[in-house]
Amino acid sequence: MTGSGPDWAGSVISWDQSGDQAETVPYVILICEHASNDVVVPWVDAAPDLLASHAASDLGALGLARALGPLLARDHGGAELVHAPLSRLIFDLNRSPDRPDACPAQSELYPVVMNQSITVGERLARMESVYLPFHNLVRARIARALALGRRPVVVTIHSFSPTWHGVPRDVECGVIHDDLPALARQIVAEADDLGLLTVLNAPYSAADHVTHTLRLHALPYGLENVMLELRNDLIATPKAQMEIATRLVRVLTRAIKQVTSMPCPVL
Question: With left for phi above 0 and alpha for psi between -120 and 50, is residue 222 left, alpha or beta?
């Protein structure tokens, strides 16, 4: 397969100010890079236990993003979600193409057989078919909002496993930033009534190369942005996702309004 073959750009869901699905000019753009555990030909060499694991997708993240979208739209006058169609086992959309973990040969305890003997040409084909279309779609949606007079807040939605290499993780909600930290810091400051142990730059930080999407799409335009990480045992069911979304949206709304009401600094 080459770059001239099929591509998988992902999907866009928009909600208007009533919370209904409708084309709008979004005030908030949610991005879910690890939404799916789907694999397709020719990338089908993955065991069922691997596909069901956190190695294949951010469990619960898409459900949480879908629950958050209409709530944020009602509070802010419009929201949008862009989510990926395929598993990160094929190509991790939140990693730079030069990173070895863009096509990981091992993910925590799980060997990823289809990546263990990947050639340079195969890696390029995946990047052209999976990575470029998705990020072109995200770029197009942000450019559309900017052209229509809106500077959207960019929020990436992720989840993480309760243990890592057998070590329990106490943090329940991670709030991660890159070079524009204002929104992340404000979310942590507002998080008392979230009811979750909320920590800045945990269980990952920009030093772990996990803010790639923010670097590509938010920082060049100076857009307020944040990466949210929820522990996946807390968002394992649609009911739990809605419960967390209902609490999280109050915190996000206060933080977004606080940060976006601040005057721009004099450079």
Answer: left
Reference 50, options 110, 105, 114; nearest CA is 110
Condensed to tens digits (0 to 9), the pLDDT of residues 221-255 reads 999 999 999 999 999 999 999 999 999 999 999 99
What does the block give as tokens for 258?
A: 């606080």
Strand-pairing partners, residue 21, are 15
Classify residue 199 as left (phi > 0), alpha (psi -120 to 50) or beta: beta
Determine what percent of the chain is predicted with pLDDT higher than 70: 96
DSSP state of 39: -
- Residue of 166 and 245 predicted with greater confidence: 245
Residue 140 makes CB contacts below 8 A (sequence gap 6+) with none
DSSP-assigned beta bridge partners for residue 157: 228
Specify whether the CB–CB gap between 57 and 35 falls below 8 A.
yes
DSSP bridge pairs for 211: none
H or E segment and range at residue 199: strand 198-200
The SS3 call for residue 251 is helix
Q: What is the pTM of this model?
A: 0.94
User: Tell me, what's the pLDDT at 46?
Assistant: 75
For residue 155, give the 3-state DSSP assignment: strand
